[in-house]
Amino acid sequence: MQLWNNIILQAPWWLLCLGLIPLTIFWRRWKRQESGSVVIDMPFDQVAIPTTWRTVVFSWLEPLFWLAVALLIIAMARPQSEHAEESVKGEGIDIFLVMDLSSSMLARDFEPDRLSVSKQVAIDFVSHRTYDRIGLAVFAGESYTQCPLTNDHEVLKEYLNGLACGAVEDGTAIGMGLAAAVNRLQDSEAKSKVVVLLTDGVNNAGYIRPATAAGIAKEFGIKVYTIGVGSYGQALSPVRRRVTGEYMFGVTNVEIDEDLLKDIAKETGGKYYRAASAEALKQVYDEIDQLEKTEVEITVYKRYVELYYWPLLAGVALLLFIFLLRSTFLRALPY
């Protein structure tokens, strides 16, 4: 029997006994009235017993007794806490996010900038992929793996949150970034292998051509979704860097090699998207999330933690408390 949240009762029929408590109370009072005895809750000013703290405590003995009985009945119903543990069977999807960290990702045509929005949208995407292994590779003038494939999405989100421009030589090595992801996915045994590559520029660095990396991805059955992020026309972007490391901004043309990104997506069976705003970028990730769905078989194992001892201990403690009062302070008072 489910009570609330994850609390259940293994023997709920014991709760029927709770209905006997008011019936017993009613019957006892009726018998007392029939025999002419004084009812326990009769005002003390109508009898010869003066009102003191002892008489007040005495008047609570019967309610406490029935409360103890109710707790013991609840204990007999065996309340338990139910914990479900999920064991996922199936390979699901292995996904590698490839993020551009070139200085142009600090352009302010997005609020506050392209990189900040891209990180947050990627974090939201990861949150929806409960059963997938996801990794992260980044690139600028060179590339490296920031996080290997993992089911620990909280760690991955921390890596995404910590991404910043300027950690490596500036540039846009799209081929290197894609190759880093392909290298991590090539030995994967997942049913589906996917790369989501996001960039805002033109390939101008690295020793691996994007077309070569795309060909290798196709060979290993890796589908690549490419995203060109940035508005149309011009945007306020970093133009140079001071000796202190601070970026200086100026208005520059937005240049994205859309033909290259389309070719990569077409070669690998993926799709190209242009995200000219934060809302458009979120829609892109939402669409990819819907496209890349794989059913996984889930076996649920339930673990139960017994809770009956709490009402049992409370009930027994109340009965002992009543017994001690009746044997000491309230020994001289009538029941």
Features:
335 residues, alpha/beta, Rossmann fold, six-stranded mixed beta sheet, four-stranded antiparallel beta sheet, 39% helix, 25% strand, elongated
Provide an overview of this structure.
This protein is 39% helix and 25% strand. With 335 residues, the protein is α/β, with parallel strands linked by helices. The strands form three sheets. The chain has a six-stranded mixed beta sheet, sandwiched between helices. A four-stranded antiparallel beta sheet has the order 1-2-3-12. It has two domains: 2-83 and 302-327, no CATH class; 91-295, von Willebrand factor, type A domain (Rossmann fold, 3-Layer(aba) Sandwich). α3 packs antiparallel against α10 (309-327) and α4 packs parallel to α9 (278-291). It has helices at residues 20-35, 53-59, 61-76, 114-128, 153-161, 174-185, 210-219, 258-268, 278-291, 309-327; strands at 2-4, 7-9, 79-89, 93-100, 133-139, 143-150, 192-199, 222-229, 234-241, 247-253, 272-275, 297-306. It is built from ten helices and twelve strands. The longest helix has 19 residues, at 309-327. A hairpin with a 2-residue loop joins β1 (2-4) and β2 (7-9).
